[in-house]
Design brief:
alpha+beta, 9 helices
């Protein structure tokens, strides 16, 4: 959950500034000593206690990207990703002309895609990004008017906090969906045989006077025709009663859309990550003006646009089956005293790994008294290559302060950027997957916690907090989302993990894990002669 408290914000900023000043002092002192060759670089490794922690249902409203579809993960079972969203009018409407007639109602949502080739004769060819599962897998998609009112504020506590919505609320939305599905076109590719189509959209318009043809090409995206008669009744006919006069009134009257995904015959389905907030419904209609032409009413074309913005929620249904049997059998909290052999990181309604450092009595104090200057401290996570051989692998994992559900100082102090792709920023902090050059399969993830360890050693009263590790959809997104049923041990998890449909299996820290695969803390340090 976002920390909106002004005091907390000030505390975080002040802490960062303080830690940065400590680090700056160290760098200045260390630079002089190293230049005089008074140091010998050495390495020490320390055991870590790392164990699994399931989140259960978790807050999933207002995500930057959300999954839609069906995805069967060989290690975590099958997930069906549905979606609920409000609509907002681009322009509120208070009047409508006479004899309105709807020509079309089109829902459009862009896909993430990459242009691979372009031709003036054959058109453009795209590759869809962020699609998981068999290519062009068929599914049944049903789009309904939602009957679930998604209010802005929580009445508990006097409407002082935002209302949250959670991954396990699909049944609540499904039970109050309105009428029949809106996508009832004869074209089954828009309903019972829907698939994420990589083809570009081509629209050719012929000028009635010159016969010139104008061709418009747009990148791949969902384009689904919705029932015109339904929108005539619910939207056009509602203008006179003031239902479209303001967005507050409209969102209570027409409560949004509910997307429901089901398997099509003979297909396991697949799943796409979508920016729903870039989607819209466009109603094109004709109406008569009050003025006349040659004694006849003046007929004009009009458009109503409703954006897929406002409150929204990712609705996930897990079916673990045989493929997710081992994961489903895991306890909610793993072995907190010895650590677990395998760490299961799962996005969505999933799981995190919890890490505890310096567990041997006197260990941290001995380092504090050693006079070491820390050059680098890092955690290297080894991937269970055999278990992950047939799976999509997360490109990145993220480590954070588990106790306080916020980033560690190394995250904030890494100012490396990537303007082309924010998801690839903070390369010093790292967490990116390292792959085998030949097989392209994952080997390790490495995360640097140098400043975290420096400050733990140099600032005597600093707290040795537990650390959390999750898969992440976007390293630039660091706020936390709350659990639907928090407890004294875990209250939330990073929002970017909720956004991800993927999971990975890493070797843990238990003594039964082979030494070359076991998770350890590595510290490279120098000590004055």
């Amino acid at each position: 959950m976002y920390n909106n408290s002004f005091f907390k914000k000030i505390l975080v900023v002040a802490s960062i500034a303080f830690l940065y000043s400590c680090d700056k002092d160290y760098n200045e002192i260390g630079a002089g000593l190293i230049g005089e060759n008074n140091f010998n670089l050495e390495k020490e490794t320390y055991d870590v206690i790392a164990y699994n922690q399931k989140t259960g249902p978790i807050q999933s409203n207002n995500l930057a990207v959300s999954p839609l579809g069906i995805f069967n993960n060989p290690n975590f079972g099958e997930v069906t990703a549905n979606y609920g969203t409000q609509l907002t009018l681009v322009t509120p409407i208070t009047t409508i002309g006479a004899n309105p007639y709807i020509e079309s109602v089109i829902l459009t949502i862009p896909y993430f895609s990459t242009l691979t080739s372009s031709s003036t004769t054959t058109g453009n060819v795209y590759r869809l990004d962020s699609i998981y599962g068999a290519e062009k897998a068929k599914m049944k998609i049903s789009i309904y008017e939602s009957g679930y009112y998604m209010r802005d504020a929580n009445p508990v506590g006097g409407f002082q906090q935002a209302q949250n919505y959670f991954t396990n609320q699909n049944t609540e939305f499904d039970n109050v969906k309105v009428s029949n599905r809106l996508n009832d076109a004869v074209d089954t590719a828009q309903n019972d045989a829907f698939f994420f189509n990589p083809a570009e959209h081509v629209v050719a318009v012929t000028d009635s006077l010159t016969s010139a043809v104008t061709t418009t090409r747009t990148a791949p995206g969902m384009q689904i025709s919705l029932n015109r008669g339904y929108f005539k009744t619910r939207i056009i006919d509602a203008v006179a009663s003031g239902k479209l006069a303001t967005n507050d009134v409209f969102k209570d009257y027409f409560r949004g859309l509910y997307f429901k995904m089901e398997k099509a015959a003979g297909s396991a389905g697949n799943l796409a990550m979508l920016d729903f907030k870039a989607g819209k419904i466009t109603i094109k209609y004709n109406e008569d003006l009050a003025s006349t032409t040659g004694g006849n009413p003046t007929r004009v074309k009009k458009t109503i646009v409703m954006n897929l913005t406002g409150n929204c929620v990712s609705l996930l249904e897990n079916n673990f089956g045989s493929s997710g049997l081992a994961y489903n059998a895991l306890p909610n909290t793993g072995n907190t005293s010895e650590g677990d052999e395998k760490l299961y990181l799962k996005g969505g309604q999933g799981s995190v790994a919890v890490l505890s450092l310096f567990n041997t009595p006197g260990q941290l104090e001995a380092i504090r008294n050693s006079g070491w200057l820390i050059n680098e401290a890092s955690l290297v996570f080894h991937i269970d290559a055999e278990a992950m051989s047939g799976s999509y692998e997360p490109k990145r994992i993220y480590l954070y302060d588990f106790n306080n559900n916020r980033p560690i100082v190394d995250y904030f102090m890494d100012l490396s950027s990537n303007t082309a792709n924010l998801k690839k920023a903070k390369t010093v902090f790292d967490g990116n997957i390292n792959v085998n050059a030949t097989s392209k399969k994952g080997l390790t993830y490495k995360i640097r916690i140098t400043n975290q360890i420096r400050n733990l050693i140099n600032v005597k009263d600093s707290t040795n907090v537990k650390l959390g590790v999750v898969v992440t959809e976007d390293i630039s997104v660091f706020p936390s989302h709350i659990l639907r049923t928090p407890n004294s041990f875990i209250t939330g998890a990073p929002k970017a993990s909720v956004m991800s449909p993927l999971g990975t299996i890493l070797y843990g820290s238990k003594s039964t894990v082979p030494s070359d695969k076991r998770l350890k803390l590595e510290i490279f340090y120098t000590k004055p002669n």
